[in-house]
Specification:
71 residues; mainly beta; five-stranded antiparallel beta sheet; 0% helix; globular
């Protein structure tokens, strides 16, 4: 791994409307950076389980150690 690459492990649950809760688990290599504004960013690529040729880039922004935005 490079200096700014880290092992990222995310475990959570999500629920849409009245549907049952779904467990979300991601383990991958990603990058962690801190912007001059003080906001932290975790960036990683998530691959489809059934077809690893399909991927999506994800960014997690942590603002003031209180607000998290995932895109």
């Amino acid at each position: 791994m490079k200096n700014n690459e880290y092992l990222i492990e995310i475990l959570g649950t999500q629920q849409l409307g009245d549907e049952d809760k779904d467990t979300v688990e991601v383990t991958t290599i990603g990058k962690y950076t801190v912007a001059p504004t003080g906001n932290s960013f975790i960036k990683y690529t998530e691959y489809d389980r059934d077809d690893p040729r399909i991927s999506q880039n994800t960014t997690i922004k942590i603002k003031d150690n209180q607000q998290i935005t995932i895109t």
